[in-house]
């Protein structure tokens, strides 16, 4: 996909909410975008890049919902709208609707299998976990990433992680790990996943910016897996990435407790990744292991043992 992502998503202007969309220079043009809102930098990014536009000259509708048909049409545009190999088995697609070619393509490529063999539900709101599932399938089926290139991080720190549907669990873990999905702040200050919540236009703007940067940006992703099964307790492994500072102290820049499969994914700013980086984790017997992590490219894949780290 690479740099074409910036231009092909303009197709969204014709399909999102089935209305007329208007290009803008920044979010300041929209009266319904409060400039102190969390989503302002993301809306600025997508309108400046031509990825999204307002529903009128003065409205962006940040809280408007995104349908499954609209989301899959976005993926179809990202793939340069190739010909679908036949028609899908879904019986709820309206003949001539804007999403028909996109859904047929998504079905034939394996990007989606629908809600059932005969139901896609194109007019239903897409949920956050469905969006993550679509994107991960896109990475595997269209971008040709392997499962090992899309490791998963722990989501046990989110109080509602048990609400993630079984079909979406790996996709949510991947999306959270690479920053494509982030937590939603509640009124009491907690960060939750809201996996079954509907995806809003503001959240879509956030997701598109993060996904574009994941493919084309300078952020460094450290993916890893602890391979010694005997040293991965059921509760996971406590891990930290830290820098050794000139004054002799350690500065922790990322930490998590993995799930029982020992997989993790850290997202690092490019300037941090240039520093001398170390990974510290605990063994099952409580011993602490520290290993130096060489950073040489955007995606770093690590296989860890108790005494060494292999990079691929």
- The total strand number stands at 10
Q: So how many helices?
A: 9
H/E element order: HHHHHHHEEHEEEEHEEEE
Biggest sheet character: 4 strands, mixed
Rg calc: 21 Å
Instruction: Determine the strand fraction and express it as a percent band.
Output: 15-25%
Shape: globular
What portion of residues is helical? 25-40%
| Span between termini | 23 Å
Index terms:
globular; four-stranded mixed beta sheet; 26% helix; four-stranded antiparallel beta sheet; single chain; Immunoglobulin-like; 312 residues; 9 helices; 2 domains; 17% strand; alpha+beta
Structural write-up:
The chain is an alpha+beta fold. The chain folds into two domains: about 1-215, no CATH class; about 220-310, Immunoglobulin-like (Sandwich). Helices cover about 25% and strands about 15% of the residues. The protein is built from nine helices and ten strands. The protein has helices at about 5-10, 10-15, 40-50, 70-80, 100-110, 130-140, 170-175, 200-215, 270-275; strands at about 185, 190, 220-225, 240-245, 250-255, 265-270, 275-280, 290-295, 300-305, 310. The protein has a four-stranded mixed β-sheet with strand order 6-3-9-10. It has a four-stranded antiparallel β-sheet with strand order 5-4-7-8, with no helix packed on it. Strands 1-2 form a two-stranded antiparallel ribbon. A hairpin with a 5-residue loop joins strand 1 (about 185) and strand 2 (about 190). Helix 4 (about 70-80) runs parallel beside helix 6. The longest helix has 16 residues, at about 200-215. The radius of gyration is 21 Å and the shape is globular. The relative contact order is 0.12. Residues about 10-20 have low confidence and may be disordered.
């Amino acid at each position: 996909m690479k740099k074409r992502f910036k231009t092909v998503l303009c197709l969204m202007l014709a399909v999102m909410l089935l209305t007329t969309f208007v290009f803008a220079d920044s979010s300041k043009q929209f009266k319904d975008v409060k400039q102190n809102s969390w989503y302002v930098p993301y809306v600025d990014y997508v309108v400046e890049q031509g990825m999204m536009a307002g529903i009128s000259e003065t409205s962006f509708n940040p809280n408007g919902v995104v349908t499954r048909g609209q989301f899959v049409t976005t993926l179809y545009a990202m793939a340069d709208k190739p010909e679908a190999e036949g028609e899908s088995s879904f019986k709820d697609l309206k003949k001539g609707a804007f999403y028909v070619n996109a859904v047929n393509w998504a079905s034939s490529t394996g990007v989606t299998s629908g809600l059932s063999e005969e139901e896609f539900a194109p007019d239903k709101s897409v949920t956050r976990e469905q969006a993550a599932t679509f994107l991960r399938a896109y990475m595997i089926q269209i971008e040709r990433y392997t499962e090992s290139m899309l490791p998963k991080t722990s989501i046990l720190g989110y109080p509602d992680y048990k609400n993630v549907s079984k079909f979406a669990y790996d996709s949510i873990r991947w999306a959270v790990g690479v920053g494509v999905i982030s937590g939603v702040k509640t009124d009491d200050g907690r960060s939750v996943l809201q996996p079954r919540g509907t995806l809003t236009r503001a959240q879509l703007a956030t997701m598109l910016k993060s996904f574009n940067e994941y493919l084309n940006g300078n952020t460094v992703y450290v993916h890893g897996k602890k391979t010694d099964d005997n040293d991965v307790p059921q509760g996971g492994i406590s891990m930290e990435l830290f820098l050794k500072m000139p004054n002799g102290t350690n500065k922790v820049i990322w930490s998590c407790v993995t799930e029982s499969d020992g997989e993790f994914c850290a997202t690092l700013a490019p300037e941090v990744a240039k520093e001398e980086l170390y990974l510290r984790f605990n063994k099952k017997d409580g011993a602490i292991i520290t290993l130096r992590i060489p950073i040489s490219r955007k995606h770093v894949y690590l296989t860890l043992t108790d005494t060494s780290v292999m990079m691929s």
